[in-house]
Every structure is written in structure tokens, then in C-alpha cells.
Specification:
The complex is a heterotrimer of chains A (about 170), B (about 200) and C (about 150). Chain A is mainly alpha-helical and about 170 residues long. Chain A has helices spanning about 5-15, 20-30, 35-50, 60-80, 90-110; strands at about 125, 135-140, 145-150. In chain A, strands 2-3 form a two-stranded antiparallel sheet. In chain A, helix 1 packs across helix 3 (about 35-50) and helix 2 (about 20-30) packs across helix 3. Chain A starts with a helix and ends in a 19-residue tail after the last strand. Mean pLDDT of chain A is about 70; it is low at about 115-120, about 125-130 and about 155-168. Chain B is mainly alpha-helical and about 200 residues long. In chain B, about 70% of the residues lie in helices and about 0% in strands. Chain C has one domain (about 30-150). The radius of gyration of chain C is 22 Å and the shape is elongated. The model of chain C has no long low-confidence stretch (mean pLDDT about 85). Classes of the chains: A mainly alpha (about 170), B mainly alpha (about 200), C alpha+beta (about 150). The interface of B and C includes residues 113, 117 and 186 of B. Strand 3 (about 145-150) of chain A pairs parallel with strand 8 of chain C.
Chain lengths: ~170, ~200, ~150
């Protein structure tokens, strides 16, 4: 199933679809067992979550939790408004001279220690083959990055249902 | 007179009205009534106790400062929830800028590996007590990225529509739909796997 | 403070930065990695006696990914060290080779070769605790994986 199709299924489930399109999707569900199975899975996931937001206990007592809020509110209400800068020229002088020093420092850093060829982030996949169909996936909890390749090329899509056991 | 008010027995509209007029005790009562929910929402989004505490308290401080803007269009609890959600989203964006950039955006654009995941048959949560189910959901959230978890929270717990979520998360509706699809499939796969492991 | 003093401070900082960059270049470190070629299948046992189940740690990481396979077997495992700015070539099987180049700041560039042809190239940060998995479908509805992670 294409991404566009499965997202239509989801929109249908979530009631985010115009009536005309709903009839088309309903017809598709009648005809396609895979679509029905995927719809059931999405529906089950949605129903499991509804009304079951995790409710971790606040790890502080009422008094302690409130005291921090109260103190901060009182502090903010006591803070005076900042006085306007009287002498713009003096202010500019105070700002520009150290800024010139910082700019010189940054220039030096960019020449000597800026890493070359550093990637923009955790990983960037480049492929030398045209249209490899590579997809990436990240599991943050376990620190795993997966790059899934369509290599070697197969003449079948990965089946949704568990494959039959290979005969030996 | 303020000293004679029974804040703990007062209804919410009264507490809000008194708070808007500067009654700190009334506001304290509002905090007491909603703090667990606001903290829980911050924790579910941030997955970090310290950050959740800080952000939930910051939300209360902002709530006090903006009280006069509360018109009663929604319930007070919903209004406060929106404040904490926005604070959490800002914090998550800041966190994302500081960390190495996630490559999940590539996966979202290409359709991702979730289309190839096998369909999980049956209901892996059937028979679970509510507390057990909540624990499992909490555990599953650890395996989702910030973006996927957030879209699930906003859609399933807050009942926001796709376009509302897109506005809050500052992304396209298509991205919201892809993230929601992925997050649901991932939840289903995790729940099924854990159920299978339990049965062994 | 006078302008003259700020200029002197800037020059001093410039000197410090230059020294630090030199020290940084000298201290650029080698990276020690482990690469495994892994086969994923739903069969509990294999006919090939040389294949052993992967370690519990690797199994946990592969099972955290959204695959249908129940069992993972180690085809080959190699530990190797790559010096800074150098490349190591690792033969994992007659058809599967990876070339790993040590870039800076825990970043590596991994080139995957299948039957002598470049299949793809990825740049990835691999600090302690991180794992990179390259994978694809194999015959008979099984899967192949190259699991790369830093080791001490």
C-alpha cells in the first residue's frame, strides 16, 4: 500500500475526511483484507490511548510546589522597570569595542579549528546509486540509527503478513 | 472579605474570578486542583522529571500573569494545559537545536519504514487493567521521538484536529498525518511484542 | 576600559586559540569499533553450524527496531581501530565489505560495498552507546544487517 492510501485510511478513522471520499474508503475497506487489517490496528492503537494518558505523580508536596511558584510571582512583581539608556553614544562605544574583539576571535576560530566536512547532525545518508529507496529510522531510547536499503533489489514488496517458514 | 472565603469549597469560576482580582489564595487553590494534570502533561511531553517540574511551574506563573486574558471560552484546566503545551514545545525545539539533528525528518519525507512493518493482529491491550495499560503507554512513549510523541498526545489526549496540531507544532498537515501514522504503528508493534514476551 | 586594552585582550585570545587548535590537532583520536554481519530470520535454528545467535545486547538493539524477524544470527564479527582521517576496509563476507573513515568528533563515514559495488555511504556520529545498523532484505524472506558500534 502506498503512503497516500494508508494516510487516507487514517483520516477516515479520525473523521477528518469529506463525505464523498469516505464512501470511496469504505468501499476499499470492504474489498481489501489488508486494508481492513491495517484499519483495525490503527483503531486499536487509538482506542488504547483514549482516556489513558499516563499520570505520573508530582514528586513534590503541595506546599513546596506552591512555594516556588508563589516566590517567583512575588519576585517578578517586585522587579522595577529598566531605566532607559541615557547616553546612546557611550552605550555604542561600550558595545562595539568588545564586539570587535569577539569578532576577531570568531574569525580566528573559523580559520584554525572549525571542523571541515562535519555533518549537519547525527547522520546524513548519501547514496551513490540512483533511487536506492533508502529509508532511515531512529530509536532514541536505545541509541540506534537504522538505514534500510533496497539492496539487493527484490522483485517483491515486503509483505505485511508474517512470511511462511522457509522450507529446507 | 477575602479572609472569609472558603477557597477549598468554592467552585472553579469563583476561584478564577477571585484570582483575576488578585486573590493569591484562590489561585493557590486552582493550582492544587490542577497541578497533577499539568505536571503529568509536562512529563509526558518532556520525559524528564526535572524539566517537567520547571515547565509546569513556569506554566502556573504565566497563568497568573495572563489571568485577565482568560475569558472562559474553555475550561480553566484546558486553558492551563495549552500554556504548558506551548512551553514544552518551545523547550523541545530548543532541545532539538542543541542536539544533533534527528534524521527522522528524512524518514517522514520518504514515507518511512513504518509502511513495511507487519500488521499486528488482535488487541495487545485486551484484558489489561487501566493502571497497567497506562504504564505500558508510558513505557512505549520512551521509544518515540519528541515529535511523534507530541502529535500523539495532542491528537489522542487533547482531541485536536490535524490542522490544529499543525498550527501548534508549526508543521504541515501532511507531516502531522505521517507522524501520527508512524506513532500509532510503533505503539501497536511495541504492545504486541511485550504481550508476546509476557506470554512466553 | 580603553580601546587599547580591548585590542590587547583580543590579540591574547587569538594566541590562545591558535595554541588550542594546534593541541587539538595533535590529540585527534583513533576510534575503536566493532562490525557484525547479522542474518535475521524467523527460523529458530539454522543449518549452518557456524552461525551463532547474536549477543543479548545486539539482540536487544535489533529487536527495538520495527522488524518482523524473531531470531538474529551472527555471520561475522570484527573489531578494528581507525586512526584519525584514515580509512579501514573490513571484509564481512565475500559479498559484503564496509569501509570506515574516521572523521572528527566521533563522526565516521561508512561506505557499504555489495559484490564490489558501492551501495551507499553514510556519515554518522558514533559516540559511546550509539549503534548504526544498515540493513536490507535477503532471500527467503530473511534480512541482512551490518551492525556498527564503538567498543572500548
Amino acid at each position: 500500500m502506498k503512503l497516500e492510501q494508508v494516510l487516507k485510511l487514517q483520516s477516515y478513522l479520525d473523521g477528518e475526511m469529506p463525505e464523498r471520499e469516505r464512501r470511496d474508503v469504505a468501499g476499499w475497506l470492504d474489498r481489501e483484507p489488508q486494508a481492513r487489517a491495517l484499519f483495525a490496528e490503527l483503531k486499536t492503537a487509538r482506542e488504547a490511548l483514549t482516556g489513558n494518558e499516563p499520570a505520573p505523580a508530582l514528586p513534590e508536596s503541595r506546599e513546596f510546589y506552591w512555594s516556588k511558584i508563589e516566590r517567583e510571582i512575588a519576585r517578578l512583581e517586585r522587579e522595577p522597570a529598566r531605566a532607559p539608556r541615557a547616553n546612546l553614544l557611550a552605550w555604542l562605544r561600550r558595545l562595539l569595542v568588545p564586539t570587535a574583539g569577539v569578532a576577531l576571535l570568531v574569525l580566528a576560530a573559523s580559520v584554525f579549528i572549525w571542523p571541515s566536512g562535519a555533518g549537519r547532525g547525527a547522520g546524513a545518508f548519501e547514496s551513490s546509486m540512483r533511487d536506492t529507496g533508502a529509508t532511515t529510522y531512529r530509536d532514541h531510547a536505545n541509541g540506534v540509527t537504522l538505514v534500510w536499503l533496497s539492496y539487493p533489489a527484490t522483485d517483491h514488496e515486503v509483505d505485511y503478513e508474517a512470511p511462511p517458514r522457509a522450507t529446507r | 472579605m477575602r479572609a472569609n472565603r472558603n477557597h477549598s469549597a468554592a467552585d472553579e469560576p469563583s476561584l478564577v474570578k477571585w484570582s483575576q482580582r488578585g486573590d493569591m489564595l484562590a489561585f493557590e487553590e486552582l493550582v492544587a486542583r490542577h497541578r497533577d494534570k499539568i505536571y503529568a502533561r509536562a512529563f509526558t511531553m518532556m520525559r524528564n522529571e526535572e524539566e517537567a517540574l520547571d515547565l509546569s511551574q513556569e506554566a502556573w506563573i504565566k497563568g497568573w500573569q495572563r489571568l485577565k486574558q482568560f475569558q472562559g471560552d474553555s475550561s480553566f484546566g484546558t486553558w492551563m494545559t495549552r500554556i504548558v503545551i506551548n512551553l514544552c514545545l518551545d523547550a523541545l525545539r530548543k532541545r532539538k537545536r542543541q542536539m544533533a539533528e534527528s534524521i527522522e525528518e528524512m524518514a517522514e519525507e520518504s514515507g518511512g519504514v513504518e509502511r513495511h512493518m507487519p500488521i499486528e493482529m488482535g488487541n495487545p491491550t485486551a484484558g489489561l487493567e487501566r493502571e497497567d495499560l497506562r504504564e505500558k503507554i508510558n513505557e512505549a512513549f520512551k521509544h518515540l521521538s519528541d515529535a511523534h510523541r507530541t502529535v500523539l498526545i495532542l491528537h489522542e489526549f487533547d482531541g485536536l484536529e490535524y490542522k490544529q496540531i499543525a498550527k501548534v507544532m508549526k508543521c504541515s498537515i501532511g507531516t502531522v498525518m505521517s507522524r501520527l501514522f508512524y506513532a500509532r504503528r510503533r505503539m501497536a508493534a511495541l504492545m504486541t511484542r511485550w504481550k508476546r514476551e509476557q506470554e512466553l | 576600559m580603553s580601546t587599547c586594552v580591548w585590542h590587547r585582550i583580543a590579540l591574547l585570545l587569538l594566541a590562545v586559540v591558535s595554541l588550542l587548535s594546534l593541541a587539538g590537532t595533535i590529540a585527534a583520536k583513533e576510534i575503536k569499533l566493532e562490525a557484525q554481519l547479522v542474518w535475521g530470520t524467523n527460523d529458530e535454528k539454522t543449518d549452518n553450524a557456524e552461525l551463532k545467535p547474536v549477543t543479548a545486547e545486539v539482540e536487544k538493539r535489533l529487536k527495538s527496531l520495527p522488524f518482523k524477524w524473531q531470531h538474529y544470527f551472527e555471520v561475522k564479527r570484527k573489531q578494528f581501530t581507525v586512526q584519525h582521517a584514515k580509512t579501514q576496509r573490513i571484509n564481512l563476507s565475500k559479498d559484503c565489505v564496509i569501509e570506515v573513515k574516521n572523521l572528527e568528533n566521533d563522526q565516521v563515514e561508512v561506505t557499504l560495498l555489495g559484490k564490489g559495488e558501492v551501495v551507499g555511504r553514510i556519515k554518522q556520529k558514533l559516540p559511546d552507546g550509539e549503534t548504526l545498523v544498515l540493513g536490507g532484505n535477503a532471500a527467503n524472506f530473511t534480512g541482512w544487517f551490518v551492525v556498527l558500534r564503538p567498543v572500548k
